[in-house]
């Protein structure tokens, strides 16, 4: 354990604090068991270390990744027991899905060491509430989304710009945009964000970023999904084909029968595969109404989770209309209820209708709809019910 403590202190010394993810202020550290879910590359490890450096007693805290060689010969439970006996109070566990029987041992740690607080991260593929041991009534779960456009701007310009709520943007978008364009040039930044700015690791090597993102997609499918679903290799290959089909199309309205033939799986397996890909953080499903959605309910529309995935998979075949809608859906997902609109593209919280388009988009489609707006690309500032689409990247 001494080596683990030393490694932790070295990591803490090196972790930067200049840029912090939105979730760091939302986590209630009074809870004894906290789960942080998020797709590969979303920044879970950095978030854990920043939490420790900013808010936890370092002398009684320990961070360890569960793919560490320490666990080749040692059990997690035994580490927690020893750590607790030596006065440990906060145990931070990264990559729990790489450790066999992780949920059973975390449950035992929670039950047997009441003085110990545990924070753990997992791939979004793993469903904590369906884990083999019941963690649902013990763990408080947070979802870490990918970088918002606001957070990307912080990475690019080192400017910490405040968040704006959805209601603030609706009511004050002209004033907010006017203030922001004094500080930044939103349009070129937005274009870069859509192509290469969604995952924090883009800063490591921007030239090779999309190639690295392709590798990440392969790891999610071949390791994360396969570890949980135990699928045949042929099925994993078909999941990749499905992703490319979605990436290279206009906003994708799935014909399940035709798509199942194209991908080479049964209808039921295809619908299940879509839901697997959504849990893995690779696609977003869109429905007219989220009530009554079952395991075999097909989505009305299907999008990749974010725009960077589109450019990594479809390359020059990326559809700009699909890019805009994918961004809009991604920024709202998990923050507000978002559904397919009968008259336009999206409806938010069953009240506000949105049509997404380029700078030449007219109001014709929403002319007779109440509480209707156009989220327009290619403009710095809007007026009336026309709002720059990039401004919705400031909600988290």
UniProtKB/TrEMBL annotation:
It holds the Pfam family AAA_14. It comes from the Bacteria. Residues 30-146 form the AAA+ ATPase domain. This is ATPase AAA. It comes from Salinimicrobium marinum.
């Amino acid at each position: 354990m001494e080596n683990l403590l030393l490694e932790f202190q070295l990591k803490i010394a090196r972790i930067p604090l200049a840029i912090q993810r939105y979730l760091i202020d939302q986590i209630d550290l009074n809870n004894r068991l906290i789960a942080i879910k998020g797709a590969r590359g979303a920044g879970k490890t950095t978030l854990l270390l920043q939490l420790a450096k900013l808010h936890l007693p370092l002398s009684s805290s320990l961070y360890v990744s569960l793919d560490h060689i320490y666990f080749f010969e040692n059990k997690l439970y035994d580490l927690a027991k020893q750590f607790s006996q030596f006065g440990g109070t906060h145990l931070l566990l990264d990559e729990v899905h790489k450790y066999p029987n992780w949920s059973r041992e975390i449950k035992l740690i929670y039950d047997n060491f009441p003085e110990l607080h545990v924070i753990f991260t997992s791939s979004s593929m793993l469903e904590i509430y369906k884990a083999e041991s019941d963690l649902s009534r013990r763990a408080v779960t947070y979802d870490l989304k990918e970088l918002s456009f606001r957070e990307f701007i912080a990475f690019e310009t080192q400017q910490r710009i405040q968040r704006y709520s959805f209601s603030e943007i609706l009511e004050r978008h002209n004033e907010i945009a006017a203030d922001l364009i004094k500080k930044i040039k939103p349009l070129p930044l937005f274009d870069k964000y859509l192509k290469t700015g969604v995952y924090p690791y883009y800063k490591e090597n921007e030239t090779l970023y999309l190639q690295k993102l392709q590798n990440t997609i392969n790891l999610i499918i071949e390791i994360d999904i396969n570890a949980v679903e135990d699928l045949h290799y042929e099925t994993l290959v078909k999941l990749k084909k499905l992703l490319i089909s979605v990436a290279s199309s206009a906003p994708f309205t799935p014909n399940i029968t035709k798509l199942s033939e194209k991908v080479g799986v049964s209808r039921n397996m295809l619908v299940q595969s879509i839901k697997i890909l959504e849990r893995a953080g690779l696609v977003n499903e869109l429905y007219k109404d989220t009530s009554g959605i079952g395991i075999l309910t097909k989505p009305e529309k299907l999008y990749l989770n974010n725009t960077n995935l589109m450019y990594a998979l479809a390359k020059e075949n990326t559809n700009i209309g699909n890019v805009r809608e994918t961004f809009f859906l991604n920024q709202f997902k998990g923050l507000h209820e978002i559904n397919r609109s009968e008259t336009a593209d999206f409806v938010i919280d069953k009240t506000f209708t949105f049509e997404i388009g380029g700078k030449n988009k007219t109001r014709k489609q929403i002319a007779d709809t109440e509480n209707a707006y156009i989220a327009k690309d290619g403009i710095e500032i809007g007026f009336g019910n026309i709002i720059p689409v990039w401004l919705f990247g400031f909600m988290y």
